[in-house]
Amino acid sequence: MKPVAQPTPDTREWFALIDEGRLTVPRCLECRAFFLYPRSFCPRCGHRDVELVDAAGTGTLLSFVINHRGPEGFEPPYALAIVELAEGPHLMGALRAPDLEAVAVNTPVRVAFEQRGERRVVCFDVEEAA
Amino acid sequence: MSLRGAVAIVGAAESTDLGRIPDKSALELHADAALNALADCGLTPADVDGVASAGEMPVDVADYLGIVPEYLDGTNVGGSSFMLHVRHAMAAIASGLCETVLVTHGESGRSRVGMVPWMPAPQSLMGQLEVPYGPVGAPSLFPIGVRQYMARYGMTREQLALVPVIQREWAALNPRAKLRDPITVEDVFASPVIADPVHLLHCCLVTDGGGALVLTSAERAKDLHPSPVYVLGAGESSESSVVSGLESLTSSRAIRMGGERAFAQSGIRHDDVDHLMIYDAFAHVPIYGLEDLGFVGRGEAPAFIEDRNTAPGGRLPLNTNGGGLSYTHTGMYGMFAIQESVRQVRGIAPAQVHGVDVSVATGVGGMFMSSGTLVLGSAATV
Ligand SMILES: [Zn+2]
């Protein structure tokens, strides 16, 4: 079984929403900055009032590696990526594409989820060229 | 008060053996290196009143060696910890907290004797935000920005492969280097793909070993060693412990900030630097380091390396021991970068560069999570 996150009190709600199929991005109610990873205060101004805002679900593929070896449960080749979400913050996720070798960085991606038991894990699908 | 040159490294040595050492625990490797470094400056554990270490706790190192410390530094920010220990010792000695600081490293990286297993806790940031995606350890996480770097600056795969190729040229000149046979760009491409674009030969070794340093005031240093190596400047910084939290995937803020501080304190200009060590856990790290330290402009490092500026005979000799890619890499390589800088300034390195008065050593920890830079100089620079 592939691993899933074991949330802490400050990340629990964010991961719970992922399990419902909703990716959110924390935002500071004081300075309005979006940030990731989730935490219970703003890393920009230190304010303690933050909210979780539904992400647009789109982003840009910043970079990725294609693993040709993997821990137990992972079938190589598979890719993990860093994406810049439309809201600005970066997030790691599994990268899915019919042909990983053909994927170029800076292409648009869309948020998806992979079911793992009770939990979901963030994925990014490369957007089909129109 | 300027700390420039106030403190010197008088003892510097590595563990008796490097490579595969199944008959010594990690703690024993700290002690072995420590005794070698103390012998280098004619001291014994009884002369030490300050202990700094990472991996093993300074409490354990002090007790194991029979040292009664008045100063302890357990800063552990991964492979760059020892650069930070030197910086902290510089302040401690200059301000009179203690007189003689022993900095130790030892790791049974390959044989895993006496090592706590490394596995991010499931509730750690890495456990929550990276482990679920199946990284193959550091080879997946550390170089993940390389594709973005290639797209932004036009670095080719050949240029990336030249980093291990040129470092192997240095290793060939060093009898203590683990890997000494010449390699070509084609050899790098032919080596197994670990996490594309990373092949095996883009990755550091995994070895057992240790190293230690003895630091004291500049006034006292002259009586302890014929060629003290002065700490002209030092800097440190940190960033996110998960890759998605880094400010940039094509630059290291931690290297940049630590480097700026170290250069500013030293008063040294880049043109004054005779020799450079940049922690090469993976082939891309020296590329980022050359740019983040300001030796070349953004995107210029691959061509700078390709033009053989950092190779034997080049104008900025880099990683002259063979580096983590060919010399040794226990897991926390920073200590070995400092050791080679000290040897080069003393003029005793196996691949000695002619006339090294100023050497810069930069370490990183985690996946660009931390960094420390030291500017070291000979007596002529103080
Ligand atoms: Zn804020």
Outline the secondary-structure elements:
The complex is a heterodimer of chains A (130) and B (382).
Chain A: H1 12-19, E1 24-28, E2 50-54, E3 58-67, E4 78-85, E5 90-96, E6 108-116, E7 119-126
Parallel strand pairs in A: 5-7
Antiparallel strand pairs in A: 1-2, 3-4, 3-6, 4-5, 6-7
Chain B: E1 7-14, H1 26-40, E2 50-53, H2 58-65, E3 71-73, H3 81-94, E4 100-108, H4 125-129, H5 138-141, H6 146-153, H7 157-172, H8 185-190, E5 193-196, E6 198-199, E7 208-217, H9 218-224, E8 229-238, H10 253-266, E9 275-278, H11 284-292, H12 301-306, H13 323-326, H14 334-346, E10 358-365, E11 370-377
Parallel strand pairs in B: 2-3, 2-4, 9-10
Antiparallel strand pairs in B: 1-7, 1-8, 4-7, 5-6, 8-11, 10-11
Helix pairs in contact in B: 1-2
The complex binds zinc ion (ZN).
Summarize the structure in words.
The complex is a heterodimer of chains A (130) and B (382). With 130 residues, chain A is mainly beta. Chain A contains one helix and seven strands. In chain A, the strands form two sheets. In chain A, strands 3-4-5-7-6 form a five-stranded mixed β-barrel. A two-stranded antiparallel ribbon of chain A has the order 1-2. The longest helix of chain A is centred in the N-terminal third of the chain and has 8 residues, at 12-19. The radius of gyration of chain A is 15 Å and the shape is globular. With 382 residues, chain B is of the alpha/beta class. Chain B is 34% helix and 18% strand. Chain B is built from 14 helices and eleven strands. In chain B, the strands form two sheets. In chain B, strands 3-2-4-7-1-8-11-10-9 form a nine-stranded mixed β-sheet, sandwiched between helices. A two-stranded antiparallel ribbon of chain B has the order 5-6. In chain B, β2, α2 (58-65) and β3 (71-73) form a beta-alpha-beta unit. The mean pLDDT of chain B is 97. The chains are: A mainly beta (130), B alpha/beta (382). Chain A binds chain B through residues 2-8, 11, 15, 36-37, 62-71, 73-74, 77-78, 80-82, 89-94, 104-106, 116, 121, and chain B through 122-123, 125, 127-136, 139-140, 143-151, 192-198, 242-246, 249. The structure holds zinc ion. The site of zinc ion (ZN) has 8 residues of chain A, from loops.
